[in-house]
């Protein structure tokens, strides 16, 4: 296996280990909520003026799928929809108190996992971080270009 293949395999393996390690605690703490719902709540909390288009772009989902997801979150009492007085066409989302409680649980879990993994990150130098981040950014831009080549417009799907 060449180094390129090793990087891909190790990225996938690393991601799968993180998901597996965090899964039980996440599911126990956030019972009754799907991962996509929790991550939608997280996005809305962290990004002002969240709307269907921004959510679709962020999650690489269609606007139709995001509309279904946000309707479900509204029905569960986790988010509100609103319009601005100067733009009655666009619908934006904000968290309800219940949504903020779910967000807080999720954030606390991430902090707990970060604390668990702190020992390894403390060993990484600034140069190593910069190198890893640079590689991930280049790879991400490459994948964006490949998505564009397929003629996929995440906004209109």
UniProtKB/TrEMBL annotation:
InterPro entries: HTH_MarR-typ, Metal_resp_HTH_trans_reg, Tscrpt_reg_MarR-type_CS, WH-like_DNA-bd_sf, WH_DNA-bd_sf. PANTHER family: HTH-TYPE TRANSCRIPTIONAL REGULATOR PCHR. This is DNA-binding MarR family transcriptional regulator. GO terms for molecular function: DNA binding. Residues 1-141 form the HTH marR-type domain. Keywords: DNA-binding, Transcription, Transcription regulation. Gene3D superfamilies: Winged helix-like DNA-binding domain superfamily/Winged helix DNA-binding domain. It comes from Paenibacillus eucommiae.
């Amino acid at each position: 296996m060449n180094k390129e293949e090793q990087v891909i395999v190790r990225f996938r393996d690393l991601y799968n280990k993180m998901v597996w390690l965090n899964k039980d605690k996440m599911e126990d703490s956030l019972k009754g909520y799907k991962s996509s719902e929790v991550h939608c709540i997280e996005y809305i909390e962290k990004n002002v003026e969240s709307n269907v288009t921004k959510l679709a772009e962020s999650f690489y989902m269609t606007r139709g799928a995001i509309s279904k997801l946000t309707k479900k979150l509204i029905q569960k009492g986790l988010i509100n929809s609103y319009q601005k007085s100067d733009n009655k066409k666009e619908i934006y989302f904000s968290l309800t108190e219940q949504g903020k409680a779910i967000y807080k649980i999720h954030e606390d879990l991430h902090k707990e996992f970060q604390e668990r993994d702190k020992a390894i990150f403390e060993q990484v130098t600034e140069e190593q971080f910069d190198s890893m981040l640079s590689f991930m950014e280049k790879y991400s831009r490459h994948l964006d270009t490949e998505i564009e080549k397929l003629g996929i417009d995440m906004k209109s799907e």
